[in-house]
Amino acid sequence: MKPFILLSSLLIFLFSCQQKTDSGKIKQFAKTIHDYTNFQIKASQQAFVNKLTEDLQSLQQNSNAVIDTKQLRDLLAKAKEANRVSYEHIKNTIEVDNEINLRQKVLDENQLFDSLYNNQFAKTINILESNDTNKKEELFKIVDGQLEERINKIQSASKEADEEFTNKYDISFPDDSTK
Fold first, then answer.
1. Tag placement on the chain: N or C end, fewer CB within 10 Å?
2. How far apart are CA 87 and CA 108, in angstroms?
3. 161, part of any domain
């Protein structure tokens, strides 16, 4: 009987240690995702999007609007670098909940923005720098409704997975105003 009690006690001890480890892994995973999708990362990406939107609206209102493409290129470079840093850190994490699959959904968002930064957004700046008289038409070929739809779909999936994860594991972060 004593070996059974000893074995049971050992199993309970090991199981409780495993739960603490899993809880620690979950919190570390959530912190990594949070840290590399918020604050400076999101701020530099948002600064680029805001400036690009502002410039496109100016061009929409006035075909002769002067656009500071050097500033746009600088902001694009910062946004690309922030996205790269985010991607690398998140890629190196290990998913802790395959059902929610938060890591992959965040990586999908990073990959989409990497593609946008290197293709559509870079082409947009090239068009803005050109002397082409059909800038508006060329820009609208690049920035169409389907692009916005793709961005919203990927971002929604990432945000929903994040909310599901933080709710499931009862995780919150102070000053979550950037999400």
1. N
2. 9
3. yes
Instruction: Print the domain residue range for 58.
Output: 30-168
Continuous H helices in the chain: 2-35, 40-61, 69-91, 102-118, 120-129, 135-142, 145-168
* Contact between 151 and 112 (Cβ < 8 Å): yes
Domain count, the chain: 1
Q: Which burial class, exposed, middle or buried, applies to 72 when counting CB atoms under 10 A from its CB (0-12, 13-18, 19+)?
A: buried
Cα 114 from Cα 139, distance rounded (Å) = 19
CA angle centred on 74, ends 70 and 80, rounded to 5°: 140
Other Cβ atoms within 10 Å of 66 Cβ, number: 9
Q: Look at residue 128 and tell me if it is in a domain.
A: yes
Question: pTM of the full predicted structure?
Answer: 0.83
Distance CA 161, CA 156 (A): 8
Return the number of other C-beta atoms located less than 10 Å from residue 97's C-beta.
16
Q: What is the pLDDT of residues 12-71, one digit of tens each?
A: 544 444 444 488 899 999 999 999 998 778 899 999 999 999 999 998 899 888 999 999
Is the residue at 118 inside a domain?
A: yes
